[in-house]
Amino acid sequence: MTPPRKLNVLTVDWPLSQEQLFPRPAPLIVEIGFGNGDFLLRLAQTHPDCNILGLEISSQSMDKAEAKIEARGLPNVRPIHARAETALAHLLEPQSVQAFHINNPDPWFKKRHHRRRLIQRHTVDLLTSRLCPGGALHLATDVRDYAETAHALLSQTPGLTNRFDAPWLDQIAGRLPTKYELKGYREGRSAHFFCYQRNATPVAHPAIIKELDMPHLFLQSPLSAAEIVDRFKATRHHAGGAHIAVLRAYADPKRDTAVFEVVVEEPTIEQHALLLLSPRTGAGEYMVRLSAVGHARSTAGMHRAVAAVGEWVAGLDARARVLERKLRG
Ligand SMILES: C[S@@+](CC[C@H](N)C(=O)[O-])C[C@H]1O[C@@H](n2cnc3c(N)ncnc32)[C@H](O)[C@@H]1O
Prior knowledge:
Low-confidence stretches: none
Bound molecules: S-adenosylmethionine
CATH superfamily of the largest domain: Vaccinia Virus protein VP39
Distance between the termini: 38 Å
Radius of gyration: 23 Å
Shape: elongated
CATH architecture of the largest domain: 3-Layer(aba) Sandwich
Strand order of the largest sheet: 3-2-1-4-5-7-6
Order of helices and strands: HEHEHEHEHEHEHEEHEEEEEHE
Oligomer: single chain
Strand content: 25-35%
Number of helices: 9
Mean pLDDT: 94
Structural class: alpha/beta
């Protein structure tokens, strides 16, 4: 099997299908934020009976790791370009992960970035839910303040038990130090290693957020697509926890179609997508839907984006009206 390349959270099955990524199903180990990929590769080499999944938001890191995996011909490791929070909500089923490894998550020193910290209550609860019974959460950081926050959160998580006698250890025998760990040592910082194990305490298991049916809105308008685009102004909407920005519109007068560029931000996922307005058979009838260009997934926020664009078009002329909505969320 040729290993799939440039996997993205938007292009893989929701929930994750091991068959899509690996030659055979096996216990799953996940590294979040694998950076230069060396630790990810070491996991693959030292756990040949497991499948290793890497989650990383930097596409440069993705390229580096993929080149190293290919050069070594390792079949049991696959990186996915994904925000960890998106993968936890849309890809990883409850009780499906044998171990998580998180090495030096971005500390986000600035106060306004604290809400984007990886280690926070909601994410720790999701990590706990996604662990198999007995599974382990390994965390390393060289930032003292981050270690103290992590200790406070992890030690107060009923579903997890500290495997160490101390809040953290400052060294682990036989560990492959990561690039950032070595940088920390060179700059005089010490490491803080955590290992927590999933215990038998019942915890909440938020279900995977699956993809919805494709959104459609049918409308009737006396305006052509070009006239609609002439009236376009960028707009922002906030609905049901989603922020929708309709940024630009382009018309193809020959085909009487228009394309709207949207950014849809939901708590678990951010998508940049194109919505298409195209004529239907009835006179002056149009359909608004997700364009086939790109890999947008049909989330509740994407349904709201189709509604926002369709209703805006229908509001442009007194004779226009929405005929039918196939929308959810
Ligand atoms: C400080 S670097 C550490 C890299 C590597 N683990 C090491 O120890 O050398 C943090 C890494 O996590 C990635 N990252 C940060 N936030 C992330 C998130 N929410 N989901 C996935 N990756 C993330 C960054 O792109 C970066 O590669």
